[in-house]
# Entry
Amino acid sequence: MVATVPVPRRPFDPGDPVDPVCRWYENELGWAAVPGVPVRLVTGLRFDVLEVPAEAGFPALRHLGPGSPVALHGDRMRLLVAAGSAEELPGLLDWLEWGTLALDLTGIGADGSIEAPPPTAGPETGSGPRGATRWLRPPEPGRAVETALPTLSALGRGAVGGGVGGAPDLVRLVQTMATQCHRVRLRQTCAQPLAVS
# Structure
């Protein structure tokens, strides 16, 4: 596991024009954020994101530790995972024998970003408009998120529900989400009326 250096915190300056949501993510969580409308969280540094239909994501929540942040964006679920996991996703799906099927499961890693949900505490707290990004399981300020994120390093450690330092197993998480994505796809296909010629 590669040690990461947290992003430097921006000093508080009441006259600073930086968005308070952006400042909250940088100062309270130490996450790189890009100001704008909406504020965006940089992936690939402290965490990557696996995105699936929410229907496929809910059954996978049982494989996460209590400190693993999860966001909802409309009908999509975004699960924060260890940095580097998005790059491993295609190989992991191949290894789990899901590689030949088109699954609605994507990874967002290095050079990516996601819309930042409104903070659950601090400035501009709220759920936002319907369909906007919001935290289902919010991150906790003052707590290092990396130790709670699913990782491949948990593989083969023999710990139930986790590996190194109690980190959840990325393999179990991806297997569950792939299975659920396939079920969702089959249900949608079966619900379509047959074409008669």
Remarks:
- The longest helix spans residues 170-191.
- The two ends are 58 Å apart (CA to CA).
- The chain is about 25% helix and 15% strand.
- Residues 11-15, 122-127, 156-164 have pLDDT under 50 and may be disordered.
